[in-house]
Design goal:
Oligomer: single chain
Radius of gyration: 21 Å
Helix content: 55-70%
Strand order of the largest sheet: 1-2
Strand content: under 5%
Distance between the termini: 22 Å
Order of helices and strands: HHHHHHEEH
Number of domains: 1
Structural class: mainly alpha
Number of helices: 7
Length: 189
């Protein structure tokens, strides 16, 4: 019964998405149908495991960063914030970088299967994610942690908001909502 529901749901997915998924699975399968073996199976796995790690560490680092006092004896609150906010910036920058790498993987595996508009949208998303990661990685520099801009807010925290605006602006400028005009059942819930 459940397999029939699954098969029926596959009929609603656009054929290009299924082809891209099939190409990714074939590349990662050591016993490919053509006998050549897998070539890039570790790449998506590495991205998935890395994303899982950075997503799981982010709330912990965020809570440590907003703690009002240093839990370590002999470390001032300012030094504690500088240290933990640097780790948080590494985590956040890595998340944005991985998002960009997902777009790179989608572009390379969907070559010939994606329309020109889809490729343009993926390239713009990739570029926005990589530039966002660069903004966040630049904020790791110690000068941005001690440079106070607005009533006690360090420049490092201000630089973290730039990627959010950049990603939102990229979507607005592309003037194309995700999954538009792709048939019934293609939009995420």
């Amino acid at each position: 019964m459940e397999s029939d529901d699954f098969a029926a749901s596959l009929d609603q997915v656009p054929q290009t998405h299924i082809s891209i998924l099939r190409n990714d699975l074939d590349r990662g399968d050591p016993a490919r149908r053509d006998g050549r073996g897998g070539g890039q199976g570790a790449h998506p796995l590495f991205l998935n495991v890395s994303l899982l790690f950075f997503v799981s560490v982010e709330p912990y680092l965020f809570n440590l960063m907003i703690a009002s006092t240093s839990p370590v004896a002999g470390v001032s609150n300012e030094d504690w914030w500088l240290y933990v906010s640097s780790l948080y910036a590494v985590d956040l920058g890595s998340l944005f970088f991985i998002l960009g790498m997902y777009n790179v993987a989608a572009l390379s595996s969907g070559r010939g299967l994606l329309s020109g508009e889809d490729q343009r949208h993926l390239r713009a998303s990739r570029n926005a994610a990589i530039v966002s990661a660069a903004f966040i990685f630049v904020s790791i520099a110690p000068a941005f942690g001690s440079w106070i801009v607005f009533s006690g807010v360090p420049m490092r925290a201000i630089l973290w908001f730039a990627p959010l605006a950049l990603m939102r602006g990229q979507r607005y400028l592309s003037r194309r909502p995700p999954f538009a005009n792709r048939g019934p059942g293609s939009a995420p819930p």
